[in-house]
Amino acid sequence: MYELPPKRLASDQGRPPKNGRRMPSPAALFKDRTLKWDKLKTGSGPKERVRRVRAFTAIWYHAVGNKPLRFVLSHDLTGNYSDTVFLDTDLSATPHEVIRRYAARSNIEVTIRESKELLGAADPQCRSEHAVARAPMFAYWTYCFVVLWFVRNFKAARSIVADTGPWYRHKRNYSFSDMLAAARRSHFRITFLEERRQERSLLKIDAARSACYGRHA
Questions:
Q1: Does residue 215 carry a pLDDT above 60?
Q2: Backbone phi, psi, residue 72, to 5°
Q3: CA dihedral 18, 21, 27, 30 (to 10 degrees)
Q4: Which of 147, 145, 156 has its CA nearest to residue 174?
Q5: Is the predicted pLDDT of residue 14 greater than 80, yes or no?
Q6: Of the candidates 158, 203, 196, 205, the residue with the CA atom closest to the CA atom of residue 178
Q7: Which residues is 76 bridged to in the sheet?
């Protein structure tokens, strides 16, 4: 990390400097007892954390060149989280705003991952230019519809969620995988299971259909 380049005077000659003096590493800053830190509360309820933060503007030359960045050093006083360095291109952002943006980004990344893995947004079969933009948006709309359906029909939907395995008893909330599985069971159970439940015998091979297929072959 480097400090911002000093202001250039009218009498200065030569190429202007790209950056200022080199700064200590973040690990060294966390150990420096002479620095002034501020206390900050983040989160709410059981997720509330008290942190010591220090914000400053510097240049990370090897990563983004001469573009200034907003650095926020965060030390969790409870000891649940390790020392973290947050970066933001918004130089006017406060430490609370920077940390809150990163916390919100976590939910966005989870939504993108689940849309790709569970709804097929990762490898859509697109045949036109417009389909490239429509395919992921359709997956995100489907994601929203599944969540809204589960919330609106919570009492009935939670009853068809699969029981938690014996190795995962500490689970307390429903994931999107649970919501999607409940939506599939609610729509496909009657169509594929109820009509078979009424039959007395289940034959693996239908003789009439087998003969018909044999004649066409």
A1: no
A2: -130, 110
A3: -120
A4: 147
A5: no
A6: 158
A7: 51
**Closest residue by Cα to residue 146 from 119, 172, 171:** 119
* Buried/exposed code over 122-141 (b: 16+ C-beta within 10 A; e: otherwise): eebeeeeeeeeeeebebbee
The encoded tokens of residue 53 equal 């933060």
The token pair that represents 123 in the structure block: 């490898």
Provide the terminal-to-terminal Cα distance of the chain, rounded to the nearest Å: 74
The mean pLDDT value for 105-129 works out to 86
| Alpha carbons 125 and 38: distance in angstroms, whole number | 52
Confidence of residue 11 (pLDDT cuts 50, 70, 90): confident
* Residue 160 in this model has a pLDDT that exceeds 50: yes
pTM equals 0.61
**Pairing mode, if any, of strands 68-76 and 38-42?**
unpaired
The pLDDT of residue 87 is 92
CA atoms of 68 and 3, how far apart (whole Å): 9
